[in-house]
Write a structure and sequence with these properties.
The chain is of the alpha+beta class. The chain is built from 21 helices and 14 strands. Strands 1-6-5-14-13-8-9 form a 7-stranded mixed β-sheet. The structure holds CU2-O2 cluster (CUO).
Length: 652
């Protein structure tokens, strides 16, 4: 017990200091790179196996080597927490590396990578060190088997520097979801999802440092993923994804991942269509249902049953509720009562991942839904997360809608917003097209380590554009605004106008930024590539050793996927902007120097934010107004924007 207490105390001290200046980054990066070079490559020189006191291995080495680690599988949580505790408790960076070297031979490699990544993000003395990019270490979680076999074949044939194209559009015409695999199977998007969970892991808890709004960010980022997926479906004229509410019905959506971990042969399980959801040996469907019902009851009553019996209740307030329910549903270490409310979100990932071999009779490996790095490839991910999102919506619907008075900033009037296309100079018109990026495989496998093997990954991209916002500041002094920009489709899959109520949960956040407003008229111009939700393409595919001064957390929506694809005729979207008063909203204590580039979706390392408003504001509550005209106050504005897909590849 004393040991654990000491570890926790040390860990608390380790992250108490906020965002210090990076020191000796190059040397530290080298140490991390050496550690990472052991992972996923069995033929590399075996790392030294330093002697270790067996007592220090208590709770370590439970997940066998060569298995895929899943943050969704609660059975791994104790072990990964133990590993993380040891990483965070090391007093100096050199000690941290020593602990990692000592533990590596005893720990599952994938779990080790996750723990190491979480520690690098959160240790102040690692500030400036890049978190290993998961798609560099495990390209086989992001590229299908056919692509990698093709690379290997070419190397065996003597091609030193093979280049293979990963074009996966329209594999077949039978599975409609293949039409959006430019989105679901995009390495950048899946890598963002993994790194989001590294930044905000459910195993994080106050014992090792404060991190505000973790539950709220869980809801918000995943709502954005679902909203974006629905918009992509509408772009290819498919209906929005249904929510997976009824667990007694067969699961209609199938998915074949075609992913194999090259080193181990671990093959992510195929899920045929129309399978029944079955109990797992460790959890029944009935238990899952019971957790859901308890959460729904807590939402209806606005209070949560705490540990220690039905008499002990926590009353939630409109200010804290969404975060409390986020923790509860994600079953983080800060869940108010994990025993009673369970682990709804994670277990559904596991049940879905094992649905084709629930009792393990056929010794199949788990499906894509099991692994954070691969789960968002599976269309069922969005169906499941839509169900989770409906629970949050249910809670938000219990809150009093914002009144026009609350939404108005009396000093400020937005006269107009439009988009200026930087390429074609058209107004309110964005073109999308195919393009590609290059994923270098040198770090991933033994067979690529002496080559310059490359995979050309195709994806969509868009013209760069600028938001031009006309704003009057009627106060006699300079003001600072927070400008919040959102986009939502205007029409549903049948071509009928979407209601504001439907659009509320479909609003895609495109940007949130501060802008100074001088007294009188202002024209604010903001480029699409400055977005607070995105990560530049170079950070995903570029050589990160060249970007020492850049963002190191690798969380952020790929810039090329900022807007939905749109369609050939041009699809219509609602572009919305709202200005709020930064002087009222700002969080005095937030240290934004520690932010990740994409702070809207990734928050920052310390769980601090640009402003104090709820995430997703003003769409975080039910809207009473029947339509946009009734909803808008003087500090809001909207316009119609068209996104047109050319279907062509942009000339490189
Ligand atoms: Cu990120 Cu379900 O939490 O995937």
């Amino acid at each position: 017990k004393l040991f654990v207490l000491a570890v926790v105390l040390l860990a608390t001290t380790a992250i108490a200091e906020k965002c210090p200046k990076p020191v000796n980054v190059e040397a530290k990066q080298k140490m991390v790179d050496t550690l990472i070079s052991y992972i996923n490559k069995p033929a590399n020189p075996v790392p030294p196996k330093p002697p270790i006191d067996p007592k220090k291995l208590i709770g370590i080495g439970i997940l066998p080597k060569d298995q895929v680690f899943s943050l969704f599988d609660e059975r791994t949580w104790d072990e990964v927490s133990e590993v993380l505790k040891r990483f965070l408790a090391a007093p100096t960076f050199e000690d941290f590396i020593k602990v990692a070297e000592t533990l590596y031979p005893h720990v599952n490699e994938d779990l080790f990578l996750f723990g190491l990544s979480v520690a690098i993000v959160h240790r102040p003395d690692a500030n400036g060190v890049h978190v290993p990019r998961v798609h560099d270490v495990y390209p086989d979680k992001f590229l299908t088997n056919d692509v990698l076999i093709n690379i290997r074949k070419q190397i065996i044939k003597g091609h030193k520097n093979p280049v293979v194209k990963d074009t996966h559009y329209y594999h077949n015409d039978f599975d409609p979801f293949r039409r959006v695999d430019y989105f679901t199977e995009d390495p950048g998007m899946n890598s963002h999802h993994y790194h989001w969970h590294v930044l905000h892991p459910s195993i994080w808890h106050q014992g090792v440092g404060e991190k505000a709004k973790l539950g709220e960010l869980f809801y918000c980022m995943h709502r954005q993923m679902v909203a974006r997926f629905d918009s992509e479906l509408l772009s290819v004229h498919l209906p929005r994804i249904p929510s997976l509410d009824d667990w007694n019905k067969k699961v209609k959506i199938g998915y074949a991942p075609h992913l194999t971990i090259q080193r181990t042969g671990y093959t992510y399980m195929n899920r045929p269509e129309n399978l029944e959801i079955e109990d797992l040996p460790e959890l029944t469907k009935g238990e899952l249902m019971q957790w859901k019902n308890r959460i729904m009851e807590a939402i209806a009553r606005h209070n949560i049953t705490l540990k220690g019996g039905p008499g002990k209740k926590l009353r939630v307030s409109p200010e804290t509720g969404i975060d409390v329910f986020g923790h509860l549903i994600a079953a983080t270490k800060n869940s108010s009562n994990r025993q009673y409310y369970g682990n709804l979100h994670s277990y559904a990932h596991v049940i879905a991942a094992r649905i084709a071999d629930s009792d393990g009779e056929h010794k199949e490996d788990n499906g894509a839904m099991y692994d954070v790095a691969t789960s968002a490839r599976d269309p069922l991910f969005y169906s499941w997360h839509k169900f989770i999102d409906k629970i949050f919506t249910e809670y938000q619907n219990t809150l009093t809608p914002y009144t026009p008075y609350q939404l108005t900033w009396p000093d400020v009037v937005i006269d107009g917003i439009h988009i200026e296309n930087l390429k074609t100079h058209e107004e309110n018109m964005i073109h999308t097209y195919y393009t590609s990026s290059t994923l270098r495989l040198s770090k991933g496998f033994d067979y690529t380590k002496d080559s310059e093997a490359k995979v050309i990954v195709e994806h969509t991209d868009h013209d760069d554009f600028v938001y031009v916002i006309d704003i009057d500041n009627n106060a006699r002094v300079e003001k600072t605004a927070v400008l919040r920009i959102f986009l939502a489709p205007k029409y549903d899959e049948r071509g009928h106008p979407l209601t504001l109520k439907e659009q509320r949960v479909m609003m895609i956040e495109l940007d949130k930024f501060k802008a100074p407003l001088k007294p009188g008229h202002n024209v604010v111009r903001r480029c699409s590539n400055e977005s607070s939700v995105t990560m530049p393409v170079d950070h995903i595919y570029g050589d990160i050793t060249q970007t020492v001064d850049e963002d190191h957390c690798h969380c952020g929506w790929p810039e090329y996927l900022l807007v939905p694809q749109g369609d050939y005729d041009g699809m219509h979207y609602e572009l919305f902007v709202m200005a709020t008063n930064y002087d009222e909203d700002k969080d005095q204590n937030a240290d934004m120097s520690c932010k990740c580039h994409a702070h809207s979706y990734c928050g920052n390392i310390l769980g601090e934010y640009l402003d104090k408003r709820p995430l997703g504001y003003p769409f975080d509550r039910k809207i009473k107004a029947a339509g946009w005209e009734e909803f808008k106050t003087q500090n809001m504005c909207d316009t119609d924007v068209v996104i047109k897909f050319s279907g062509k590849t942009k000339a490189q």
